[in-house]
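Morning. Coffee machine broken again, so started the prediction first thing and wrote up yesterday's gels while waiting. Chain of 137 residues, entered below exactly as on the submission form.
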Amino acid sequence: MNANMNTVGIDHVAMPTANAERLIEFYKRLGFTINDEAEWRAGDAAIFSIQAGDSKINVHPEGHTASLRAPAAVPGCADICFVWDGTAEECQKWLEGAGVEIIAGPGPRRGALGHRSAVSMYARDPDENLLEWMVYA
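Came back before lunch.
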């Protein structure tokens, strides 16, 4: 690693949604924590977020236009890879148990930890964002 490189991780990414209620229900069914949901419902927050370990996904509901955002940010534009802490079989069973269709995998992949072998599987959320679960050996 470059000695001058002080960027050490990702704090959050953002994605728009066409249907906030449907997205919240989907991610809650998978066990994710929804940050600021009560504030968003009360109209006190313009956005909510999905917690994933030490990172989060800020969700911009339809009608919310962030002043700083990618020019082509539309529902379904995200491609997110989560790290699963367990076996590929456990991950597959968990996704299927939550009613999530696996569209590809499990299959061998090269993740961010390139020196470790991994398999992953893909699914889509209600906005058609591509979701991947990476399982390291």
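Residues 124 and 130 are 5 Å apart (CA to CA). Going to sketch it on the whiteboard this afternoon.
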